[in-house]
Amino acid sequence: MTVQMDYRESTDRAGMGRMTVRELRDTFVIDSLFRPGELGLSYLEIERAVVGSAMPTDAPLLLPTHKELASRFFCERREVGVINIGGPGSVTLDGERFDLSRHDSLYVGRGVEIVSFASDEAEQPAKFYFVSYPAHASHPSKRVRRDEARIIAAGDAHTANRRVIRQSIRPGIVETCQLVMGFTELEAGNVWNTMPPHTHRRRSEIYMYFDAAPGRVMHLMGDPSEPRAVFMDDGEAVFSPSWSIHSGVGTANYSFVWSMGGENLEFDDMDVLAVSDLGPGA
Which residue, of 98, 130, 148, 187, is most buried by count of CB atoms within 10 Å of its CB? Predict the structure, then answer.
């Protein structure tokens, strides 16, 4: 089966400001994830990232390479982070099987030739979400269980953003070239994420919202002085330029996978903004 690669370009601050809501969504939102029995791929101009999903049912799904990568196999010069948000399944790397329960993560190092995704049960398929960046070195592949991630409790009920951050693919747990990845779960009754927002010019970030249905999430992005909003449905991803904020508010609590790639791996390397910095001001 041939898997098409969706190619996504970005824009500058002025270009984003001129976009209609439809153009904003068509440019930055990836809405083709988690189709039963299919593997999907999107190539992002930003950081040369690849965002994809695999939802195997009756048969395993292989991760293919593409002419855009100019490589003999997908991971010839790339690393990949995988998080399962569905039923139990497995990822096999050059014959070595890694079982992944819901919320488990897997780092796939540069040089792995064959990557295969499978579900334990077709009626309750796994939903593998993955992000890939170019890699300059080979590091060992490693599975990180949900409870093996670094867990951080953040936020306050007073500001409706109490949440648990699970950093699974990060320094101290997994050695990578530029990929850091994990997921955040908002507690019941809390709806804001990453507020006040921040930017980090040295790396870009991708969010994938899940456990949101039947609600929706309004994702905020763009220049802090001219923020834009796009509505996100369950199982959709959105990428942001390095100069853009990335934050959101839902109609109920939800979860999201975040991933970053760029010049460094430091979580604290960010330019924190105040709520008063948003918009043109009085």
Answer: 130
